[in-house]
Structure formats: structure tokens, C-alpha cells
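Changelog note: in this version the structure field was regenerated for every chain. One regenerated record is shown below for reference.
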Amino acid sequence: MTGKSDIAQMSEAEARDELARLAGLLAQANQAYHTEDAPEISDAEYDALKRRNTEIESFFPDLKRVDSPSDQVGAAPAEGFGKITHAIPMLSLGNAFEDADVTEFDARIRKYLGLTIDAALDYTAEPKIDGLSLSLRYENGRLIHAATRGDGETGENVTENARTITEIPQQIADAPEVLEVRGEVYMSHADFEALNARQVEAGDKVFANPRNAAAGSLRQLDVTVTRARPLRFFAYAWGELSEPLAETQMEAIRRLEVFGFTINELTAICDGPQSLIDHYRMIEEQRATLGYDIDGVVYKVNRLDLQARLGFRATTPRWAVAHKFPAELAWTRLEAIDIQVGRTGALSPVARLQPVTVGGVVVSNATLHNEDYIQGRDSKGETIRGGKDIRIGDWVQVYRAGDVIPKVADVDLSKRPEEAVLYEFPTTCPECGSDAIREEGDAVRRCTGGLICPAQAMEKLKHFVSRKAFDIEGLGAKQIEMFYDDPDLPIRAPVDIFTLAERDAGNLNKLKNRHGWGAQSAENLFAAIEEKRRIPLARLIFGLGIRHVGEVAAKDLALHFGGWTVLTEAVDTARPAALAHRAGEEAVERERIAAADEGRRARIKETRDKAIAERDVPKAAQAAWDDLIGIDGIGATVGLSLSDALANEEERAAINALVARLEVEAPAAPAKESPVAGKTVVFTGTLEKMTRAEAKARAEALGAKVSGSVSGKTDILVAGPGAGSKAKKAADLGVETIDEDAWLALIEGL
């Protein structure tokens, strides 16, 4: 059983609600784990939560939250230490949990590099040490400073503590002028047991596991305490270098060994996914006898030039992945089914369980996804779990692999109570009483209450103030909940945030007299709000919480249109074409219900074209629609959602009231001059010297807009072999068309 198959059945609303729960739980876990060295959940549970988040985001990239755990590396440095900014960020790794994930990782690498399935491609595979990441900077062979990973950008200065670890050299002969060595501080099982025995004898606290003991020991303000702790260090990577260590990952690791560092003897070169999996199995079999904790195996592309070419995502390298060890199952009683209402109005069923320990963590809630899942059907209407429905009172199997609220995976019918009855999914919203309808093709029911539904309104506000939206210091989810029902200073819509100070003045400055507030905290909040009146266009678009318009889509829209007024005018102009598109899709859906035959495909196209033609769309509207959905990464789904939101009178009025109080910033110009800055570029046909993903990333880095279709706004068409209809349309429109060599010559050196 896999979490991925389950996620593939989710609606976007379910995925969005699941990501919201994950973000809160993981933020709390990160703080406890990285900053306080007092984890509230086990390492296995943390990994499971992170996995769930990553898998959902991979299936629903546009739903990625502004406070996504995927964009967070560790936690902010503790206040007791000085801070060191990493010259090169210390990033986390993406995760794999199944053999298929490893095969997919290899396939992604090959696709990005343009390599065939049989092309030679070596990887290294090494145990993933369960410890604390540490960076060691050497200059002219001398240890200058040591820093924890912290939040990836800035870590804690633990130099004096690191000097007490015998496996960390103080001087290195024949090293590059600048050498930053990265690795893991850990504690062996034997040393951990001995330390806890001493702690008990001294009447001090005992540590929960070796990782916590190592982290707590390295992050002692009193270096004498660290010196008394048996810490060790494995080197496995590097940061800033004044000269390359080698041409491959394995050769570079071996050179670190020559410098005097301990490297893991189980590190090996593997020539493909099956070889990686075989090495993983070998390490897994030895796991219990290694003498130190590991929680998986890390795979890295061996050639360093390919690593450089693959580059990085926001917080993870494309060229590496951590293959984690699996999670567990448990059985318990389903005591109740509760319905939660999310920001998009989705009604999500949650199982309330008789508490059960799963992998060292007590679980009392589990997701049930939607009414089809409860009834034993998937999104296509096909049976799952052998068609067994889920009823209150059932004995159910709980699957923890990555779920913040774990999944109810199976039912034991032999233990079903005689009084158990079929569960009837509600058709009204439990929050506001409005009808809850299920649209054709949607897997979930949604509340029709909109802004009158407190669950939706509050969740939209929480999204609005979240980190990658408006990110107002001092105004988070808890404060939104407080202000939402406040009798004197309510915040029910985003614009209410920006009238808070003047309303407070009209109420004789009541906020400073509230419990938990004061004159200074109130002024700090008002100042933080005032600071956010000037907001980048992409953050505004994302902060509105429009369905399907995630962070990436918001940035694409901002880059393409450049201003809020330009965007809204374009969407308004495109509205008739958007409605025609919807009419066409609805007609197609009706046609699909008919029995399949040989002429079905032609009939479907004819049906769509007829439905669109009947709308008699103005040319300007069609051109605006084509331009909108032609933006690379946007498409009709986002276009329709954006159009619907701005066409809703109540929602548009709320947005207009907000924008009137803001100064919206256009997207920043590219960092350096470029011959393609501000131009719209379309790539078509086969690119032979770089992959499409590389071409798009490079063009955007130089300030160009990359579109998926040719229009009158296209400036350059880069056409490879097999260009087809786009090349013809470009010629008809007089668009400049160049080949890949000319494109590379145009951007050479930039």
C-alpha cells in the first residue's frame, strides 16, 4: 500500500486542507526538534509527516503553501549562540520511500539531462546518519569556525564545542585555501547508553535517543559539558571551496578522508536504480548492527559536473535524494467521523480513533478523504479495499506513512458491530448550514456559503497573512482567530487588517488594554501592518487564496502581466472566452457519458467546437483568454478559477477595497542586463543541447517571460526539429524565429 496512490485520488480541496494541517504540525516539530532539542514527536513520525507533505506537493504543485515545510530547512538558530551565515546554503534532501520512487528519481535525472535510459549514469549511495548537521570552515588548513545548519541560511556558531570532537581535525595539510566540510555529528549506541547511565547516576535528565543526545551536547553553552560528551563526526559533503576537490562525489569524499576526516565505509558507487536499491537492502539488513542510528540511504549523482548542471530547487538539490526506511501499521476502533470545512469550502471527513501507538507515536485521528473513500470507491468509481465501506464502530487499520492525520487503510469486517450502519455523508455545511453540493467530476462536497461561512472566511484570512503571502509580523493564525470574532475590532476580510489602526483609534485605543497586549505590542502590530501596504504583485495574487492559484502560478502571472490593473483588465476581457471554454468542457463531459464508439473522438471535438461557437466570443476576449492560458504553467484550470473569482461581485468588491489601500510592486527587473529581459519567449520542437526545463529556467533567470503558446505578444520563438504548428503561426504573425544555436549565442556569457 502506498501513500501516493491515495494522494492521486484526492481532490485539490482535500490536498489543500491536508497541507494546512501538515504545515502547522511540522512547524511545531521543527521548533522543538532543531531549536529546543526537545522533540515532541519521534524522528520516524517527523519523517512520515514530511513525506506526506512532499508527496502531496508533487501531485498538486500549485497548492504549495507559503509556509510549506518543503521551503523550510531546520529552524531558526537559538538565541544563546552567535550566528554564522553559510556562504552556500545548507539544504535538506528530497525523500524517497519506495523502490518506485528511486526509479522515478533516476528517470527525472535522465529527463532533465536529456539522457536515454541506457546511458551510463553513476550514483553514490551512503547511509543517512541520524544526527545533527555541521559545517566546518577551514582557511589555509586551519579550522576557523563551525556552524549548525540552523534554517539553512544561518546557523549557530558552535566552533569551540566542535573543537572538542576528536574526529574533527584542527589543522589540515595540503588543503585548498578555503575548504568548507559538511557532515553529521552523532553519538554511537554504546556511548549513548553510557551517557544515559551517567545522567541517571548524577540525577540529571536522560535523553530519548542518540540524535537528541548529540544535538543537545553540541549545542551546550558551556563547552566543558560538550567536552565530556562522546560525540563523533562523519564527513560526507562540502560547501564553499577555493578549488574543486575532485571530478566525482566519491573521489571528493576520498579526498576528505585523506584530510583526516572519517567517512562512512558503506558508501558505494551504483550504476543505476536497481543497484541503488540493492545497496539500500544491504544497508537495511545491517542497520541494527551498525552501532549508530541511520534512517535511510542517500543517493547522489556521482559526477560533479552533472550535479552542477542539475542544480537546485528552492530547498533541495535535484541531484540527490534520501531513501528513507518504511513506516508502520496498526489496528484500532473508529469511534466517530467528524466533518471539517476548509478554506475552499471542502467538507473533509476525519476519523476519531481509539488512541493507538503507531511507531512510537499515539494516533487518535485519521483522514477519510471524501465520501467515496468512506463508501469503498476511488475517484473513478472503482472499488477499493475490496468494496468494504467504513462505519462508525469498525475495527480499522491505520497507516502512518507520512500522514499528519494518518490514513484509515482497511476494515476488519469480522469485528464489525451488529449495530453499525452505513455512514451518510452530510449535504449541508456543519459550520453555516448552507447546502453542500458535489459538482460533476469533483470528488468532494463543497459548502456554497462562501464568505458567510466562517470556516472558509477565517481560513482565507489565515492564508492571507501566511509567510509567503503578506507575512505580517505579529498577525498569524492565532491572532486571526482572535480578531475574527472580536466585537470591537473584527477582521472579517483582508481590507479589515489595513483599517485596524484607525478603527482602534476610534475605539479609544482598546487593543493596548486587551489581555496579552500592551501599548508597545499594539504599536508593533500596527507598524508591521503598515509595512506591508507595499507588497509585491506575486504576493498579492497568492495571498488572495484563489483556488488553484498557488505560489508558482502567482509568480508566473505577476511576471507576465507586470501590474495588478493590467492583470484584472486582461482577465475581465477574457471572461466571455472563459465561459465559452467552460461550456465546451461541460459539453464534452456530457458526451463522454455516451457509449464509446469509433467516432467518439471526432464527435467530442465537434461537440466542444459547437458549444464554444454558440457563445459567439468576441475576438478581443478570445485573444485575451489565449494569452492568459498560454502563460507557461497556467492553463485553463487556473485561468477559469481566476476569472470566476474576479467575476464574483462580492469577492471582487472585497479585493478592490483591499487593493485600494495597497501599493502593489511590479516584479523586480533581472539582476543583470540581458538581451531577452522583458521579452516573451516560446520554446518548441526538440531541443538538442539542453532540456526544456533547463531552457525555461535559464530564460526566466535572464528576465524573459516563457509562454507555452505563440501569440501576437510573442517576441521570440526558439524552434528545434519538429516545431510544427507553432512555427507556422509564428511565421504568420511575423514573430522572430531562431534555432537553438542562435538562442545559445544570444544569451552566451549571461
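Spot check on this record: Confidence is low (pLDDT under 50) at residues 74-78, 593-598. The chain has five domains: 3-71, 83-324, 450-532, 539-665, 680-746.
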